[in-house]
Amino acid sequence: MSPIIFPSFLALLLVAAEVRRTAATKAQVAQPHPPIDCHYLNSQRSLALDKMLGVWYAVEVVEHFTQDVRTGHTDLPQCPVFTLTEEKRNSTQSPLIRLLWKEGDAFSVEYSLIMPEKYHKGFWRSTGTQNGSLAENSRYRQFSGTVHIMRATGDHAVLTFCSETELQVFSVLLSREPTMRQSEVRSINNMLERRGLPVTYTKSTCRAHNGVSANIATELNMAGAVFIILLLTTVVLH
Question: CA torsion, points 112, 113, 114, 120, in degrees to nearest 10?
Fold first, then answer.
């Protein structure tokens, strides 16, 4: 990992607490979108879990702000990889799903998730604590909340993470390949808007696989924060 990125990563962590306070203050002044209810996001009710398992590439992250704190778009060369596995348990228990989020050899974090509602298979809840190199950082904030499967097909999926303890709601667009047609990305973003999730800031990833030149990718890598920062905090820099 480049030694230039890591200091930026730590700097973002240091401002996390102040950012949350600032965002909360702004929420009291201006709120163009209604608050997001993590229990009613209209996620898929039916789901073939076995079709969800395996390796995925995160090709875009969409941050959902309900207050006017950040808008825009960023291209990033990093190509995070998600791996979903199921741990078999007895028939009286809900499936235990392991979600491993990795960025190369630098950072990883593993979620443990359960499917608490038998007839709502696209609604998952975190259980226990996260593991991985990122979770070992003393500044890491354990995620406690829900993960909603907003869409799941054979070649792409949309997961919305909704924290119950932080000002943080974001969606991850997953693809079986490190690329996705822009028309499909726009369609997914429109779907999220229709379901009450404002698309306020987007981060396109895997840009090295999508025609971004090596020089531009290097510049982005040096200037931007590590993409996995979303797992720690929603950061706004002014």
Answer: -170
Spatial contact of 102 and 79, defined as CB atoms under 8 Å apart = no
Q: What is the pLDDT of residue 70?
A: 61
Over range 130-149, report the average pLDDT.
89
Rounded to 10 deg, the angle between the 16-29 and 5-14 helix axes is 50
Give the C-alpha separation, 184 to 174, whole Å: 12
- Looking at domain 5-231, its CATH superfamily turns out to be Calycin beta-barrel core domain (2.40.128.20)
Predicted confidence band of residue 90 (pLDDT cuts 50, 70, 90):
confident
Round the average pLDDT of the chain to a whole number and report it: 76
* d(C-alpha 105, C-alpha 169), whole Å: 26
Cβ-contact 165, 145 below 8 angstroms? yes
Q: Which residues of 8-41 are buried (b: 16+ CB within 10 A; e: fewer)?
A: bbeebbeebeebbeebeeebeeeeeeeebebeeb
**Residue 186 class from Cβ within 10 Å (0-12 exposed, 13-18 middle, 19+ buried)?**
exposed
Question: What is the C-alpha separation between 22 and 233, in angstroms, rounded?
Answer: 13
Can you tell me the distance from the alpha carbon of 40 to that of 139, in angstroms, rounded to the nearest whole number? 30
CA angle 168–173–178, rounded 5-degree value: 135
Mean pLDDT value of segment 177-195:
93
In the DSSP assignment, the letter for residue 176 is S
Q: Which two tokens stand for residue 62?
A: 């969409």
Tokens of 115: 């499917």
Could you tell me the pTM of the whole model?
0.76
